[in-house]
Amino acid sequence: MLPEITKDSVSTESAPPYPLQWRKRIYAMLGLVVLLIAVVILAISVDSPYIPFSTTFQVIFSKLPFVSTSSTWSPGVEKVILHLRMPRIILSGLVGAALAVAGATYQGLFRNPLADPYLIGVSQGAALGAVIGFMLPFSWGMWNLGAAPMFAFAGGLGAVSIVYSLARVGKTLPMTTLILAGVALGAFLSAITTFLMLRSGDTLHGVYSWLLGGFSCVSWTEVEISLPFVVIGVLFISLYGRSLNVMQLDEEQAQQLGINVERTKRILLLAATLITAVAVSFSGIIGFVGIIIPHAVRLIWGPDYRFLLPLSTLAGSIFLILANLLARTILTPTVIPLGIITAFLGAPFFLYLLRQRKRAIF
Amino acid sequence: MSRFRKRVMPLVSLLLVLVMVLAVAVGCGKTEETPPPSTTISVTDDLGKTIELDKPAEKIVSLAPSNTEIVFAVGAGDKLIGRTDYCNFPPEASSVESIAGYSTPNIDAIVLLDPDIVLATGAHNQYGGTADLEDLGLTVVTLAPESLSDILGNITMVGTLTGNDTEAAQVVADMQSRIDFISDRTAGLSEGQKPQVLHVTWHDPLWTAGSGTFIQEIIELAGGVNIFDDVTGDVQVDTDTAVLRNPQVITVVSGHGSAMRTSYDYIIAEDSPFNITDAYISGGIHLINADLACRAGPRVVEALELFAKFIHPETFV
After folding, report:
1. Of the candidates B106, B114, B234, which has its C-beta nearest A333's C-beta?
2. How far apart are the C-alpha atoms of B211 and B215, rounded to whole Å?
3. Which of B85, B108, B233 is opposite residue A201, by nearest beta carbon?
4. Quick one: A31-356 is in which CATH superfamily?
5. ipTM at complex level
6. pLDDT for A292-350, tens place per residue?
């Protein structure tokens, strides 16, 4: 711990002065962990349709080793709790974490407060992939999944690699070129997607609800596939907190401070895109999380990336689990597209924070 | 020796008896299991999947208004425990618990209802909903009719699944005779005697039904020609082309899921682009309930009768 602090106190002479509020931030992290657990428990029970807390606990405890209780609930209840709600809640937490961390990373990389996982064509590529996946007549037998998630994943990664190779100038990657290439390719891909949707006929329903985002039917398979990607990706990016701090300065200055800027950019871009693509492929297009969560965390706990990244992970999970819960319960039994809820909740909360702290966010 | 025997023999005999009892018990258990579970009901759904039930389905969830109408038509409405928000016919359906929308059913709600069968449509299969439900151990029957005779087949199938074969046969026979009544009278028409028909599902942009749809089949059975039989499925078409093809009859569905007549009002308006067509001039523009024209259920025959009246008012009154 000690050498870390000294190292930082040296760099703060030239870097923006981030006061080290260890205690406050650790409390914040612990508080968010507790909140996350509470929200998970709440979401399992108070979903649509409602299952009483007592039954929920009994079902979960009966599954713990060395506990034997007589089951007084119908088999449907157990199936819903263990095979629908738990994977759905875990996946929404993972997706929330992935989008929030990816958003924070892109904002840091591009030094642009408006950057989000969708700025460089990830979402448009994934959407096109998903639409093609929906139109294909086969399913992904190996994992018992539809073709859409895999195609969405490939589409997202494919789009970003095209944008990357278009934007590269020699050995450097100018961020302005990257964003412009991303926006242009995104528009092109969206045009193809819209055209295909127009021609998709009966499959339109599926495509449309996928594009609106959500977790209508999630099985453990989706969790098993996405969990390692998201956990490793988020942890990996979190290691680069200090680099991202330094990169908020001039790139030249960062170079002088011993950071291989180009290499770091490439690595972080790849990692953030990977977790975004995983998130998008299983949940569809859920806007706003990548922008709102990192900025809210910045406004509350400051812009230090060493804390911004883990705090965004937790806050993103909590936010998306809650948003999904609301999407499913407001008009029970109808499920509202999740994207509506994230924007409807996220935007006013964000505007409130913005008014509360009128100083510069970024 | 004898003392040994005296002591051991009872034990041995006891053991023997035990073994025999056990053998018999196990044997009995086996003889009870040996007869194969008598499958009394077996049907093949529209995906080619074989569905086998030990007894008629007692708890049914329907994922589409057309399926709900079929369940009620074959007299199994009391076995329906879940329906969609759009299932508004027959009125009794509204007292059944809803499992939310047609394309967005609440999976949790369906699983909690623990149905014997779930009646889905081709659309549910295409976006993966059917597979999701089957993974959760539910029996999903898919109704994906492509023609009127497929609908009759679906009604027979639901009758078999619910044990109401007789009722279903009656419904099918009645529908078939009503279809035959119309087709008998339109079969001999020459091409010149068949009016050009435009079917409008939405006006701006103009959406119509092309070949491969029920509407196409209904228009032909009713003795008309679909002016857009050169396009396939439910499609958006150009208004100018529709006007230039000069339909003699225009059928307009009321807005989906409600009594909205926006499209109809647009087409019959004074400044309508259709005001130069024969249909507009001769008063051949008709409003038709979307629930009749769009649902692949027992009321499709009512839609056919309406089309017949619109297209050949001189023959069908």
Report:
1. B106
2. 8
3. B233
4. ABC transporter involved in vitamin B12 uptake, BtuC (1.10.3470.10)
5. 0.72
6. 899 889 888 888 999 999 999 999 999 999 999 998 888 877 888 888 888 888 788 77
